[in-house]
Amino acid sequence: MKKIKLVIALLFSVISMVSIAQEKLSNSHKSEADQYWETKPICYPPASGVTLPDKYNQKDFDRYIESKTEVNIYDELFRRTLREWGIRFWTLFPNDQRRFEWLVTSRLYEPAYFANVREGARAKAEKKYVVQLDTLAKNGWKILYCQYLKEFLSSNEVSEQRKEILFRQELSFGFFNKKWRNSKQEKFDLQQHVLQSVDFAKRYGAEGPVVNMLGVLYRDRNDFGLDDQDIDKYLALLKATEFSAFHQQARGIESVRKLYKIPLKLQTKSVDGKLVDLEKYKGKLVLVDFWSLGCTVCIEKMPEIKQVFDKYNSKGFEVISACISGYINEDKKKIEQIHQKTGANWPLAILDFRPGGLGRKIFDTYGWQGVPQLLLLDEEGKLLSSGSEFRTKGSLEKLVKQHLDKN
Fold first, then answer.
1. Which is a Pfam family this sequence falls into (predicted)?
2. What distance in Å separates the CA atoms of residue 203 and residue 84, rounded to the nearest whole number?
């Protein structure tokens, strides 16, 4: 028996030695570019990297933010490492076509360039977009990127499909990264973004992805540092384009802005069959929360809404939960479970998001491109606040308290 074990051990030892020898031989035949390419950073943090608390338990929120901060630190460092690795690869091997593959990947994982990574990571976890940035590094990348992009677009080795992918990422991931600003005075370049959007729509005949970004830009206008005058310019830019989808988006935004003067109308039935009619809420301060099952941000906000409701309901604050779904029969049970687990004791309505459904009609009317959509309505049903004004923790209570204290 001992002899058999010894033979097996020797066999594994020989196999191991042969394997190492083969690897060395293989590496000796690899070019420097091949060997460097194998060092490409790939350790992107998995979604499971965050230890999620019970999202319905407000007490765990701070711990959740801390764990998200740690993941955001890892995330930012990974993105920077990937970029610096690629810049070096491009410099060392300027004729290697794989540099274009890195360029597309790098645009997908765009660093924020925080001056202090921990402070920036926490700001990201709390969705606060004014934070000190490493302007020198950020501007240095802009210069390099212009050079890289020129080579990328002029290369016959790059397919049109890959060029389209890069432009899509430019409009989406690059777009969201422009929320990061050193100060509240910094402005998002609306004109450049609309011109980029028009160029993409012309080049690829794809208005849909662009319109989504245009809608998000209005919803998150505060995050981008935009005021009413900026939005006026934005609408004028959209209307001046040749695309009907852009014009429709402009009309949707105008419809939302009209809600500041004209009461929102909403009449439907709750999941328990009771009538939900905003007309019946006149004289109350009302939050209408449009959300969906797939929106984790929406669900994470619910404990805070519950907390504010419990504190101010007796003073005239009400909530209506409006979940949109294209599969009501399949989703109904899950939607009700989330509502119940939150401890919500306000009406829940499920709005049909299929073509012709009430949910789809509402979103088409106001040009909304996604959820969450939170609308705070005054006692007459007119819009007080919406969108990213509720993004940070405590912002909802602050707005509710300010309004109730005035009245």
1. Redoxin
2. 30
